[in-house]
Amino acid sequence: MMAAMASLRRVGVLIPKAGTIVLGLLLILLVVGLGFVAIWQDGRALAAQQRLRRASSIVQTADSILLGLENIQTGQRGYLITGQLNYLEPYHRGSVSIDQRIQRLGRLLPATPSNTRLITNMRTLAAEKIAEIDQTIRVRTNRGFTAAANIVRTNVGEQLMNLLRAELSGIRNQYNRTAIYEHVLARRRTRMTKIIVSGFGVVLLVTLAGMYWRFVHDFRRNTEITDRLTHNANNDPLTDLPNRAMFMNWLTYGLAQAERINGKSAVLFLDLDGFKPVNDRLGHSAGDRVLCEVAQRFKHSSRTGDMIARIGGDEFAVFIPTVSNESDPAELAHRLIEAMRQPIVADGSVVYVGVSIGAAMYPRNGKTPESLIAAADQAMYRAKREGGRKLAFHNSALTDQITRETRLRGSLQKAMQAREFVFHYQPMLDAQSLKPVAVEALLRWRHPDLGLLVPAEFLPIAERTGFMRKLGPVLMQNAGEQMAAWRRQGIRLRLAFNLSPFQCSDQNLISVVESVLISSGLEPQNLDLEITESGLLQNDAQEILRNIRQMGVGLTLDDFGGGKSGLACLRRLMINRVKIDRQFIGGLPKSQQDIDLLAGLTDLTHRLGIQVTAGGVETRDQDVVVRRLGCDLVQGNLYASPGSADDCINLLHRWKAA
Ligand code: C2E
Ligand code: CA
Fold it and tell me: Domain range for residue 362?
């Protein structure tokens, strides 16, 4: 029952709470109960009134009988004394009706045997009294006053009269008392009835008012809840700005409008610069405060009609439904960038957060909400790459890039199954003897339509989509198999294998490495994993890499010197090689600064017992410098460019033979 009510409530049907229903039922019961009591009490009051009326009638009738008899008697006396006939009027009028009145009294009295006897007795007495009066009148008329007075003096008439008086007074007194009692009772019951009816009215009113109030209140509450749910579904709870779902709705509607009137629209994609460090350094609550402040500034800087939303962690978007050209979105974008120049105070700290903005125009850069957002997103990345805190417009080259990326993303899985991912190998030579000691496996995608793709074209996509999680282990296995095959041809070299940053924190990495070593027969010291600084920064990476190092597998810190790798981590991780960033080699030998830097780095790493590889050596001069400065290994197009497995093995055979 409760569950059914709850589900009805969920679909918006107004169902009051259980407590309200019980209270309502109790009130209704009270109303009905009071109604019955009022009717019953009213009946009792009516009965008392009826009894009162009957008692009053009895008293009145008794009075009228007595009065009638007194009048006749007074008339009799008047006639006896004066002999005037007009005294006999009451007699003529009452002599017959007295008996009728006594009978009426009999009908009014309760029909009991004693009352019947009483009435019969009274009728007899009255008849005798009338007869006595008759007689005296006749005697007066025929024989005169004295004869009539003698009859009256016998006192028989007076005795009859006294008897009748006594009977009637008895009845009168009894029913007078009854009348008084019934009068009081009737009044009390009527008052009681009034009180009950008033109570009934009040309770009824309270019940109706309560039901009305409950209904209105529940209705309002339900409306409020529905409004709140709709608001929450469409708005970001932190900043109260519309969320991505709402933004997509606007965009869909707005673009349909623009298409109808052949108009132009624009989408801005906003990404905060420098927000992550705020979150990391000051905590999430400060981060939230910054986001709220940013949202406020964006809101105040946008114009009526610009639709601004928070579509991700530190990502916002603005839809401008009608623009005439690029200057409209550019003007708004610059206002938004300006709004972020002032510092923000969050949890007592002053922080500087900027915004990079990408703009895309409808219909030029995209015709659907998704394509427009993707275009603006791409443009935003360009703004970031160019230093951030600026606006970049989407251009057609970017569109091509998006299309290409989308296409590549869609065919990654198929490519893995079709073995389209292959390695090119680039030898690494001992700097002293210039003999090959290792090969670096460099990934290529042999795409059926686009030709041979280098990692920069597809690796970021594979990493972003998480596909590398699947592909990485397969690749290491393939490279290991290649090494085993070359060993069977007499070429025993170390394999240098590049790891994607996230692979460094993959708990499976240890077992993948073990299985590659076992299946390929490579000794651990003949496998070298090349990792980047961002790989080192991944969660758990240091623990996992230390385990791998303890297996005897080599670790090379790739692109060394280009970032901000602390030297301490070299020791902690037991890194055994570093590969000097190509940018230092490129400046050689002209840049004395680069020479000094390379010399310093080499000296330092050697002191830590770490070997140095100079990568990207392209010229004789560079070769001379890196070898003079004591680099242990050299690699680069000067010695050998990366080539297919076949080209590489042929080269290695040639070198071996030489
Ligand atoms: P990296 O590890 O720094 O690799 C060296 C890059 O420099 C390679 O580019 C190589 O072809 C290029 N190179 C070698 N010698 C010279 C030279 O003398 N001059 C110039 N200009 N370039 C030279 P490539 O093959 O395009 O690889 C780019 C990056 O892709 C690699 O940088 C590496 O980080 C990544 N990568 C390659 N293969 C894999 C892989 O199997 N897995 C992962 N996760 N990353 C890979
Ligand atoms: Ca490398």
Answer: 244-394
